[in-house]
Amino acid sequence: MTSLQGKTLLVTGASSGIGQALCELLVERGANVLGVTRRPSALSEDVSPILADLTQREQVSSIFQGLGKIDGLVNCAGTAYLSRIIDGNPADWEEMWRVNVMALALCCQLSLKHFPASGGRIVNVSSMSGHRVPPSGGFYAPTKFAVRAITDALRAELKSVKSPIQVACVSPGFVDTPLLDSYFLGREQSLAQTRAAMKMLEPADVAWAVLTILEAPAHVEIGDILMRSVEQQM
Hints:
Helix content: 25-40%
CATH superfamily: NAD(P)-binding Rossmann-like Domain
Number of domains: 1
Strand content: 15-25%
Mean pLDDT: 94
Structural class: alpha/beta
Low-confidence stretches: none
Largest sheet: 7 strands, parallel
Strand order of the largest sheet: 3-2-1-4-5-6-7
Radius of gyration: 17 Å
């Protein structure tokens, strides 16, 4: 198992949901955690805040200015709206694309020069919606398909130049995070029914999966972890 004691990990979306749960686990493991957020007051005192709005490309770039060495990057930040292709709001599409795809890809690219020669790991938090399109997938699902493609493309590119940096995904089903509030906006009764009908994954469940990748032995490469509640049908 790879020890995270004293390692430096950069986590986006650090102030809520999966990112917040992951930061807590990493601190417990003795890691130095850098948390990218728009709400630094929401971070624990053990997490070093980096203020950035991931919808703004220049602010994404600023995360890495003067950053120093890191041993891992976990892209947890994401946004979700129920925005259909046939009548969805293009502004919602643009925000999802900027955060879920462009910011993630740019963080991956800009992080590479900050890893030590021995390598490290990049983990992108994707979704089961990146493997199949649910009936309500709308424009959100294409952004998560893009995350999976970016992960696979980056892995292949790094191997082609013999880089020791590994790249992985974690693709959960429904997770009970604040992200659901925006996804079910205007459909609060449907969200209540979904919560009543099944036990969703908790943020800590997904954080544990990310930790499994980060702590895997150096010779073990994990491509993608697909996970969902046993009560979720698809």
